[in-house]
């Protein structure tokens, strides 16, 4: 990202994720998701944890929330998650509205990153895990188009570098080049767009 680039507002995508979370029933918390090791409750816990981590990364408020690897433990949700998740998602979006968040270095998941890379990772997490949550709970999903494009470009660059067998989250799943952008991003992330 250069000085002439506009800072992406994460708000539209965080609002999409918040609406999806609101649509989750208590009965669905134990349902499986496209993340093989996660049930819906774990996916929601991951979304909560990454939102806190990337909020603090955007604020350059480095400490335990930004130093902990996402692989440290299987995430889960507590009893107050329905109130906490939308609040933290809104705080995440607000943190990245500050142009200073996109500059210099920061940290997330225990990894030091340039600000604009951390933002791209956050957007990718919100877009792909939003799809995971929608698929797992039978909800329709329309990610913010600008966030989707950023996530796709980030995943395509990672795949071109051959990171972890091609994808950020696993080996790339081949998808037709004429497929919708969301399907192509999902495939690049290591998921089958037709998972169900």
Sheet with most strands: 2 strands, antiparallel
Q: How far is the first residue's CA from the last residue's CA?
A: 36 Å
Give me the secondary-structure category: mainly alpha
Let me know the number of strands.
2
How is the quaternary structure best described?
single chain
H and E order? HHHHEEHHH
Helix content: 40-55%
Average predicted local confidence, pLDDT: 91
How many whole angstroms does the radius of gyration measure?
16 Å
Classify the beta-strand content into a percent band: under 5%
Which strand order do you get reading across the main beta sheet? Answer: 1-2
**Weakly predicted, low-confidence segments:** none
Walk me through what this model shows.
The chain has 196 residues and is mainly α. It contains 7 helices and 2 strands. A two-stranded antiparallel sheet has the order 1-2. The termini are far apart. 45% of the residues are buried.
Concise overview:
It is built from seven helices and two strands; from the N terminus they run H-H-H-H-E-E-H-H-H. By secondary structure, it is mainly alpha-helical.
